[in-house]
Amino acid sequence: MTNSLKIKSFAKINLALDILGKAGKYHKIQTVYQQISLHDTLIIKEIEKNKIILKSNDKNLSVTPKNLAYQAAEMIKKSCRVKKGVEIFIDKHIPVASGFGGGSGNGATALKGLNELFKLKLSKAKLEKFAEKLGMDAPFFITGGTAMGTHFGEKVRALTPLTGLTLALFVPNKKSPLIAKTKTVYKKINTKLTGKEQKKTKLLLKELKSKKPQKQAILDNLHNDIEIAMDISEIKKTLLQAGASQVVLSGSGPSVVAFFKNKFERKMCLKALDAKFKKAYRVLLATT
Q: How far apart are CA 3 and CA 201, in angstroms?
């Protein structure tokens, strides 16, 4: 019988993202990561030949050694001296390069899955160190749930999980100017203008620590400094007028997250949007 396992790889959004400065090629940040219900599924199995095979249902996904799940497998095999081969199939549902951490999540999830498959007994701290080599947001996916990210985003501290938020994710089509802006967004950030919303982050953290977090207090303090370099005012105005409670950029974009008090409000908002708007964005429903 083939040794295999199936593991979910969840998407994330940022409830808060403060850019505090720059050190070398990375920006120093503090952020509140939030796992959401949207997810890929990784099917990982041991194979006889000592090699790595990566497959996916999504033709837009690179299945070369550049893929972070492939790199995770290389890292585990080399560092832990695993002589067996592995095949990873990524059943993709998180849009590629969309601001939901799909690639980093796949890499970190592959680390967790391979640790379990080969019974390596690697600690959470060790997995996080491996994940850090894949990307600054990758260690979060080892922790999952709700977490604080500091330094470049790779220093992760778990928070009380936030559940019950209703979301709609708006992923722009390929012709959208937001797609092009995402590739250079960090270069355009003026750090003199960022870090002004840290009070909101403190209020958000205070609310998350309370016994009964108030949804409105959380929604009031959502923010993302990257919006300084990526103007989403047009889509934000449209969605707020249609009934969204809050709208923020997802990670470094290009997707946008709309928050609602309940599923009925989300339904009515989506119904109010015109055909032109719906054609410009792919809409995915999610919760925390």
A: 44
What is the predicted pLDDT for the residue at 1?
54
d(CA 118, CA 18): 39
| Residues spanned by the domain of 103 | 4-159
Same domain, 147 and 170: no
Q: Give me the active site residues, please.
A: 12, 137
Q: How many domains does the chain have?
A: 2
Instruction: Give the CB-side neighbour count of residue 84, counting CA atoms within 13 A.
Output: 15
Structure confidence by residue, pLDDT tens digits, 137-194: 999 999 999 999 999 999 999 999 999 999 999 999 887 777 766 667 888 899 999 9
Residues 140 and 47 in one domain: yes
pTM above 0.90, yes or no: yes
Separation of alpha carbons 82 and 12, rounded Å: 30
End-of-domain residue from the set 159, 193, 217: 159
User: 202 and 234 share a domain?
Assistant: yes
